[in-house]
């Protein structure tokens, strides 16, 4: 089954909760709640384009939150990287979910501007 953006963000946040400090988990969760969820979360993770990521970052920048836009770019890059690693894990096979058919990480390719 092809994983969507909602699943990817949920899996990634669960991963952060288990493997990082509470403050980092909360920062990412709050950023996602405020800004990531402005896009259609039912979109397949592999269908998210560079333009989609830039749209999220632009929305944040428009309100004058340049530092938050930069942080969100980092959070998204890490989330997509996690998804690519997840696709090659035992957990992916057990849950029968794959997020990507290719090895693109649009979050890392997006400009900070």
From TrEMBL:
GO terms for biological process: DNA integration. Pfam families: Phage_int_M. One of its GO terms (molecular function) is DNA binding. Residues 3-84 form the Core-binding (CB) domain. SUPFAM superfamilies: DNA breaking-rejoining enzymes. It comes from the Bacteria. Keywords: DNA integration, DNA-binding. This is Core-binding (CB) domain-containing protein.
